[in-house]
């Protein structure tokens, strides 16, 4: 049976592990882990009840709970909106859902190639007022804006 | 809830008006900032706003390494004492734990200055300036009307010169209405590189760190 057909190993919500975890199958963390997690050929999912204080190396990492540590993924990292993530993310693809709590850096290795992927069509909006630049460097030459309708 | 600037929201609407995603405005300051980030330079960008996956992807596809620190939200969890002028620099050292290799080419502060006292802006930019390369640019949106949303809006890059915003427009609170002359005093190690007044009352600033 191929690894893809096997169920993932699971650390239940009532389990706490202090130490390093390595393996050769997918892993779901619903409990607490302190240490290090390495499953370089498989995925790691930190469920909503998961509390991980560890660096994680995997092929794919999904975070729905809390992680304090750095993540490296060969393919993808996804931080769900329910997640609290404190640490640095390194992967070719990183997804952060709006609403997640995140503090750290994002480094998408090899992500420079497709420059047009994120460039969407321009959206028309309010035109900026005539440019008043360059102003004198911090010379106190600022002008007060004219009264405008209070709409962002 | 502790407000970082002023005391309380001045208007309480029946329910927060949530801006629809996609409401956008042209941003010449953003365009200038992004134009300065060369993909081959592996620029480092500090984002002081809430994590926006689209922005991070947008910047990353242009070769940037992005640091995200949701400053406003982080400060909400801190005590009033720690936000006092004498303690704020120490608080920032904890909230912004930059490493020795962190050298920023650009800082996106969005509208967070509007929610900080002058001494807090000074401390913030002093802290950030320690990790900025000479000439690093800081993008900031300053409210020029007397009232502004009680909490910062969220800005999404939709094009190199276009931003969509979303967030609650009410309740509102008094805006500090910082002027360019204020920044000369508050942020003496930065100069105003360019400034644009939008029709919606937002003054866009692009600051440059002095070498």
Describe the protein.
The complex is a heterodimer of chains A (152) and B (211). Chain A has 152 residues and is mainly beta. Chain A has a domain at 7-98. Helix content of chain A is 0%, strand content 45%. Chain A has strands at residues 9-11, 16-22, 27-29, 32-46, 51-63, 66-68, 71-79, 84-86, 89-90, 93-96, 101-107. A 6-stranded parallel β-barrel of chain A has the order 5-6-8-11-9-7. Chain A is globular, with a radius of gyration of 22 Å. Mean pLDDT of chain A is 77; it is low at 110-152. Chain B is an alpha/beta fold. Chain B has one domain (24-209): Rossmann fold. Chain B is 23% helix and 30% strand. Chain B is built from 6 helices and 11 strands. Chain B has helices at 28-35, 53-60, 71-76, 88-95, 118-129, 180-186; strands at residues 24-26, 44-47, 65-69, 104-110, 132-143, 147-149, 154-159, 162-166, 172-174, 190-197, 202-209. In chain B, the strands form 3 sheets. A 6-stranded mixed sheet of chain B has the order 3-2-4-5-11-10, with helices on both faces. Chain B has a 3-stranded antiparallel sheet with strand order 1-8-7. In chain B, strands 6-9 form a two-stranded antiparallel sheet. In chain B, α4 packs across α5. Chain B is globular. The chains are: A mainly beta (152), B alpha/beta (211). Chains A and B meet through β10 and β11 of A and β1, α2, β3, β6 and β7 of B. β11 of chain A pairs antiparallel with β3 (65-69) of chain B, so a sheet runs across the interface.
């Amino acid at each position: 049976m191929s690894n893809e057909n096997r169920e993932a190993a699971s650390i239940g919500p009532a389990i706490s592990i202090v130490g390093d975890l390595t393996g050769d199958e997918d892993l779901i963390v619903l409990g607490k882990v302190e240490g290090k997690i390495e499953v370089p050929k498989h995925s790691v999912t930190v469920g909503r009840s998961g509390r991980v204080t560890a660096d994680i190396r995997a092929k794919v990492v999904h975070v729905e709970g809390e992680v304090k540590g750095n993540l490296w993924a060969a393919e993808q990292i996804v931080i769900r909106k329910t997640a609290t993530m404190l640490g640095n993310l390194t992967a070719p693809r990183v997804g952060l859902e709006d609403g997640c709590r995140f503090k750290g850096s994002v480094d998408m290795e090899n992500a420079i190639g497709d420059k047009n992927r994120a460039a969407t069509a321009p959206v028309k909006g309010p035109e900026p007022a005539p440019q008043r630049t360059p102003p004198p460097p911090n010379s106190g030459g600022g002008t007060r804006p004219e009264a405008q309708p209070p709409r962002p | 809830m502790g407000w970082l600037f002023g005391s309380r929201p001045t208007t309480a609407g029946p329910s927060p008006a949530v801006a629809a995603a996609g409401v956008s405005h042209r941003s010449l300051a953003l365009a200038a900032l992004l134009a300065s980030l060369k993909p081959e330079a592996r620029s480092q960008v500090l984002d002081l706003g809430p994590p926006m996956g689209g922005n991070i992807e947008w910047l990353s596809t242009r070769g940037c390494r992005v640091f995200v620190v949701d400053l406003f939200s982080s400060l909400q969890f801190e005590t009033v004492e720690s936000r006092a002028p004498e303690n704020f620099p120490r608080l920032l050292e904890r909230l912004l734990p930059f490493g020795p290799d962190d050298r920023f080419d650009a800082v996106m502060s969005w509208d967070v200055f509007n929610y900080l006292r002058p001494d807090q802006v000074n401390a913030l930019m002093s802290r950030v300036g320690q990790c900025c390369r000479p000439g690093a640019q800081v993008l900031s949106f300053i409210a020029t009307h007397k009232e502004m949303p009680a909490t910062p809006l969220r800005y999404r890059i939709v094009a190199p010169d276009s931003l969509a915003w979303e967030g609650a427009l009410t309740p509102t609170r008094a805006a500090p209405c910082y002027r360019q002359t204020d920044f000369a005093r508050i942020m003496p190690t930065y100069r105003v590189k360019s400034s644009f007044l939008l029709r919606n009352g937002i003054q866009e600033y692009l600051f440059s760190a002095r070498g």
